[in-house]
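Notes, p. 3: input format for complexes.
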Amino acid sequence: MEKIKIGDEVFIPFITEEKIQERVKELGQTLSQDYKGKVPVFIGILNGSFLFMSDLIKNFEGDCEIDFLKLSSYGDEKISSGRVKMLKELNCEVDGRDLIIVEDIVDSGLSIKFMEDLIAEHHPSSMKVISLLVKPNSLKYNVKIDYIGFDIPSKFVIGYGLDYAQKYRNLRSIYVLSEEK
Ligand code: IMP
Ligand code: MG
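Output follows (181 residues plus inosinic acid):
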């Protein structure tokens, strides 16, 4: 795997495609066990979670449904704006359903907090959160992430759905911003 130069910034390989796929498979198997006999609704948070969501449900055995919510907090920057905007609402009925919120990455926890408060108003039967990545040292809100792919340091990462100014989501591996210039 090669480094990626973006302007005067350098991103270095961090989590390989193989490692991601292996972990997503394990998470899919765990969810298959935990939701045996139920028909959960996976709710992906766009845009970042689209690849993770797709690989995750391919590893889920049993019936399930999917829907997407679109939130935005980062604009085109590397730090969160601190505000969350809802850009697309849910289309499915969530009353009485078992929901699995699918995130790409949890940083401050603001997006998840916003989502949980919003969805709780609709009285689902249960609601759990799965995130491929979590930056534990960046958490500022009291949120519980029920299933975690990888805990990572508080550094900016791109690839496998994660963007920098909307680009690089199509990278198969995850890269981290390096200190070097
Ligand atoms: P939070 O609301 O502060 O937890 O931020 C969560 C959202 O910010 C994620 O869903 C991502 O869309 C974005 N985000 C946080 N950290 C990164 C990163 O390192 N790279 C790309 N996007 C990120
Ligand atoms: Mg996101």
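The chain has one domain: 4-75+82-175.
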